[in-house]
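User: Hey, my collaborator sent me this sequence without any context and asked if I could get a structure. I don't really work with proteins. Can you help?
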Amino acid sequence: MAESGEALGTVPEHERILQEIESTDTACVGPTLRSVYDDQPNAHKRFMEKLDACIRNHDKEIEKMCNFHHQGFVDAITELLKVRADAEKLKVQVTDTNRRFQDAGKEVIVQTEDIIRCRIQQRNIITVVEKLQLCLPVLEMYTKLKEQMSAKRYYSALKTMEQLENVYFPRVSQYRFCQLMIENLPKLREDIKEISMSDLKDFLESIRKHSDKIGETAMKQAQQQKTFSVALQKQNNVKFGKNMYINDRIPEESNEIVLKHAIEEEDENEEEVLSVQDLVDFSPVYRCLHIYSVLGDEETFENYYRKQRKKQARLVLQPQSNMHETVDGYRRYFTQIVGFFVVEDHILHVTQGLVTRAYTDELWNMALSKIIAVLRAHSSYCTDPDLVLELKNLIVIFADTLQGYGFPVNRLFDLLFEIRDQYNETLLKKWAGVFRDIFEEDNYSPIPIVNEEEYKIVISKFPFQDPDLEKQSFPKKFPMSQSVPHIYIQVKEFIYASLKFSESLHRSSTEIDDMLRKSTNLLLTRTLCSCLLNLIRKPHIGLTELVQIIINTTHLEQACKYLEDFITNITNISQETVHTTRLYGLSTFKDARHAAEGEIYTKLNQKIDEFVQLADYDWTMSEPDGRASGYLMDLINFLRSIFQVFTHLPGKVAQTACMSACQHLSTSLMQMLLDSELKQISMGAVQQFNLDVIQCELFASSEPVPGFQGDTLQLAFIDLRQLLDLFMVWDWSTYLADYGQPASKYLRVNPNTALTLLEKMKDTSKKNNIFAQFRKNDRDKQKLIETVVKQLRSLVNGMSQHT
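Assistant: No problem. I've predicted the 3D structure and written it out in structure-token form, which is a compact way to encode the shape of the chain:
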């Protein structure tokens, strides 16, 4: 029962499978059949049975179908057999007709083929013409490109390339020759870049070589313009009475001549004025810039140009090692720099973006720092003021030229103030030599005048005013020597030289006045004063020369106010201006006079020492000669002659010199008595010494220099006088009794001095009086000397203990 149930269940499934096999494509039969094997056990057998039953059913149906249509098939075959004969006849007829048509169409075919061939040729010709018409413009443009390359018209060649690529090549891109042309264009572009870059390099090398010529032309034009402006300004100043620079050596009327000459020179050079375009061919830069712009590589060109120009700037800014030796070295340095920046300024204004204002400003600031450092270093080696002045003029023209092109130059004018100080230093050194030469050539004697003409010549050189001298008849003498007017003239020359540097510095008259006064003060206080002090200290300068130097400095001091007026006339700045600097002539010449006075005192004392060294006393003489020593009389005569020369000196100077000489003579005589090498002094020697002191006192009382009151000058010998009186009178009791009293007769006698001299006399008495013990007077005198010596020693010891 179970098996029969399973069999009943599988029958519908087998029918479904069979339906799928019959209805589906043969490619899908496999999965269907596989499902039979995947089914229940013995399902295959039952499926095969079912399949056989199905086949039998289909066979039966086919058989029924064949039986049904068999008669129709037989009838159709019979009809075909009947038609076969007619078909053969028709075939023969068709074959014959075809043969006849073939024979008749052979000629037509030949003609038709000829026509077809002609039509094809015609069509090909038309196509070739069309293609040639399309290719000819391309070939013409390419030929034009080659011609432009040969003619070095590279910018036009690049434009032609653009037209070829954008317009012509797309029309014939299918042809091989077009591909060759397209492949050749990049090479042509690279060739153009290389050629244009080579032209640019040649251009850069050319402007590097000719930058000095460009700068020289630009500076010359700036200088001509400035000369014309200055001449016009001077004429206007003359017309309106505002002449800034009054030159004693050049009359003001010459301003019109200067202006006329400047105008004539301007007219002559007008035709010769060359611009930077006239000196330099900038076409390589323009071409190269346009070419790189077309190629889309403008940034590369700009970077290359700026990099190369910066390298050239560094080379231009590098000075020669010996540049400071000549002005031509500085001029070459400046012209190269000016030429460089004139070219850059031109490039800035005629190109778009190749260089920018920021780039030129950066380049200028870098260059300016280098220029200032170079000038500061090299100018320090300049010792010639003329070279420094020419350097200043070059810097001014250099600054004015570049300022005209829009470059800031304030730092250059600041540098000029540093160079001005150096210029003043070189001037001071130069004038120091001038002053030394003047002092060496001076005879240190008053200037003799024999007629009115000579008098006027001296007055024209030096502002001397003395009514008493004017009233005197010829011949007469100026109190100063020849060096005074020469020094005065040289001081004015120094002011002129200092003024030359101040011109064109764009400074006000007040600043120029202040600079002139300060530099003149340096000349007076440092250079002239130093030269005077060195002159005073020279060994060959004697007392007469020193006296004349003092007189000269007095007159130079008085002339300082005229120098102030001279500077005022130059600058038109009144001396009453609050900030006007005064000349330090008073302190300058006062220091020199003090030094000369001190040197007079020193040399006078040295001369006295020379005379004193000639003293040849016989310190053991028994009796004096009865007259003063010869050396002393010669000394007094010398002092009298010297003090006569001192009459031209200020009163106090002569009095001080006289007092100093007497005091020094007194001190020298005292030291001679107390010399430690002098062991013995006789009374006769003391008496002879007293005669010499008397002559000194007589000289002092004769008033060798007027102005002393009473016996002031004689007091210089008071110490000697009291000491000698004490020994001459032998008044020891009074001396010892009154010692220390204000009213003492021998107040100026020092116990030590008296003891020293007395001991020397005691030793002499012992040696010269061998038989003194046999004479009562001599014994008494010797005892008295010993007693006084003991008392003086006790007095000296008491003074030492008290001290």
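In plain terms: The longest strand covers residues 447-449. You can pass these tokens on to your collaborator as they are.
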